[in-house]
């Protein structure tokens, strides 16, 4: 995990010490701040709904978060071969993907879009360190947009705005495109109750309509739903 989160592999301890000194200076204590462990950072990356993979210039997989593991298990739109090299499922896109990984490992971020059946795949590739002449190419971070079927966790948004448990369930239903009537049936409550909860959600979050509320949620980095 260190290559995924710490920057240049030859200076991880130095970079951690520098970060701790900055935090200590900012909080005014003068004491080094405790730095998160690799396990904590791994858990944070695993919480993201974006599939994220660290690969070498030849596509060899070094690390994948939980969303990426789920994607690779399905084999759509990326798959991993017996040699642990990652590539698009469809052969027609493998050449462009391999070229983008190689170019990113040389220090030039890349963005790809390709079609896989009814799904449009969006990928961003960035080097995880600055290339240094005479040394191996750095790993590349491959981040994909979450697939349409991803079940998002809205608990953080709900906590921030003080939504009740019932309001959070209604918000999740809205994210799935359910209207008030369908939501009421699914939750076993009256339509008037759901509409009242929607009004409360809009008031607490400061949105005049459900459309602007959902648009605001769409702009946030999505989190995976626990257990999904």
What does this structure look like?
There is one protein chain. By secondary structure, the chain is α+β, with helices and mostly antiparallel strands. The protein has 2 domains: 2-144, PAS domain (Beta-Lactamase); 155-218, Arc Repressor Mutant, subunit A (Orthogonal Bundle). The protein is built from 10 helices and 7 strands. The chain has a 5-stranded antiparallel β-sheet with strand order 2-1-7-6-5. A hairpin with a 5-residue loop joins strand 3 (78-80) and strand 4 (86-88). Mean pLDDT is 85; it is low at 1-10.
What would a concise description of this structure say?
The protein has 228 residues and is an alpha+beta fold.
The major pleated sheet works out as:
5 strands, antiparallel
* Total individual domains: 2
Mean pLDDT value:
85
Shape: globular
Spatial order of the strands forming the largest sheet: 2-1-7-6-5
List descriptors.
single chain; 228 residues; alpha+beta; Beta-Lactamase; Arc Repressor Mutant, subunit A; 2 domains; five-stranded antiparallel sheet; two-stranded antiparallel sheet; 10 helices; 7 strands; globular; disordered N terminus
Topology of this structure?
Elements: H1 2-5, H2 12-27, H3 38-46, E1 52-55, E2 61-64, H4 66-74, E3 78-80, E4 86-88, H5 94-105, E5 110-116, E6 119-127, E7 140-144, H6 155-161, H7 165-175, H8 180-187, H9 191-205, H10 210-218
Antiparallel strand pairs: 1-2, 1-7, 3-4, 5-6, 6-7
Helix pairs in contact: 7-9, 8-9
């Amino acid at each position: 995990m260190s290559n995924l989160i710490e920057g240049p592999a030859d200076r991880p301890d130095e970079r951690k010490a520098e970060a701790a000194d900055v935090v200590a200076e900012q909080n005014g204590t003068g004491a080094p701040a405790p730095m998160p462990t690799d396990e904590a950072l791994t858990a944070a990356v695993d919480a993201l709904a974006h599939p994220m993979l660290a690969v070498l210039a030849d596509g060899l997989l070094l690390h994948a978060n939980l969303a990426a593991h789920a994607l690779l298990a399905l084999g759509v739109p990326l798959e991993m071969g017996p040699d642990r090299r990652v590539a698009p499922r469809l052969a027609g896109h493998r050449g462009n993907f391999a070229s983008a990984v190689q170019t990113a490992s040389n220090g030039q971020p890349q963005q790809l879009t390709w079609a896989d059946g009814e799904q449009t795949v969006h990928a961003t590739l960035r080097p995880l360190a600055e290339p240094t002449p005479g040394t191996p190419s750095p790993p590349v971070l491959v981040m994909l947009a979450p697939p349409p079927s991803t079940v998002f966790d809205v608990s953080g948004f709900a906590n921030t705005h003080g939504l009740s448990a019932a309001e959070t369930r209604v918000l999740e239903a809205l994210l799935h495109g359910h209207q008030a009537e369908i939501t009421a049936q699914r939750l076993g409550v009256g339509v008037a109750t759901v509409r009242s909860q929607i009004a409360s959600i809009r008031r607490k979050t400061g949105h005049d309509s459900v459309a602007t509320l959902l648009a605001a949620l769409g702009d946030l980095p999505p989190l995976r739903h626990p257990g999904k």
